[in-house]
User: Fold this.
Amino acid sequence: MAKQGKRLKALYASLDTDKLYALGAAIETAKANARAKFDETIEISMNLGIDPRHADQMVRGVVGLPNGTGKTVRVGVFARGPKAEEALAAGADVVGADDLAALVQEGKIEFDRCIATPDMMGLVGRLGKILGPRGLMPNPKLGSVTMDVKGAVAAAKAGQVEFRAEKAGIVHAGIGKASFSAEALLENAKAFVDAIQRAKPAGAKGTYVKKVNVSSSMGPGYKVDVSSLSA
Assistant:
C-alpha cells in the first residue's frame, strides 16, 4: 500500500488543477496514469445545473456503450413459464419468481441488473425496500420492465449503463477499462455524454453541463473543457 501511496502522491503533485483537457486528452491521460495492479475502470462524472429534488429536473436513463464496460454483468430476471425459459436462453444468471423473491428477502442478491416482466411487478414491488436502495428496482422507463426479456438481457450483458443524478446534480459512470484503447473509451464517453444531453429535463435553467471530470479508479481526476464535448 505504501508503494501505491507514493504513486498517487506523485500523480497529485504533478497535477495542474487549473488545466482543462479536451475530452479525448483527458481520457488518454487518465488511461496512461492508471497503473494499479488491476485493470482500473475509467470513469466520467458530469456536474449538471439541475436540482434533482424537483421532479421536473431529474436526469435518469440508460445508455448502451458501443464498446461495453469491460465488466461481467450478472443479470437477474423475474419471470415465469416461457419468459423464464427465454431469459435463461438469453444468458440470464438467475431466473425465478417466488423462489427468487425469497432469496432476495434473505439478502442473497446474486445479480447486478434486475429485469422483470410486467406481470411480476406485484411480486417485485414488495421487494422495493431491498432492491431500491441498491439501484436494482426494475423500471419500465429504463427498459427493465418488459416482455422483451431476450432483448433486455442481451442489452444488459452487452454493456448497458444506467445513470441517475445524485443530490448534488452529479451523474457518473464507468466507461470502460484502462486496458481499452483510447478510441474505444472515447466512443463510450461520447455515447454517455450524448445520452445525458438528450436527457436534459424541461425544468433545467441556465447552464446544463457545468463541469466534467475524467479519472481512473485509483487516479486523480482531470478536468474536461466542456466546449470540447461538442467537438
Notes: The beta strands are 41-48, 60-64, 75-78, 94-96, 113-116, 160-164, 170-177, 209-216, 221-223. The chain has eight helices and nine strands. The first strand starts at residue 41 and ends at 48.
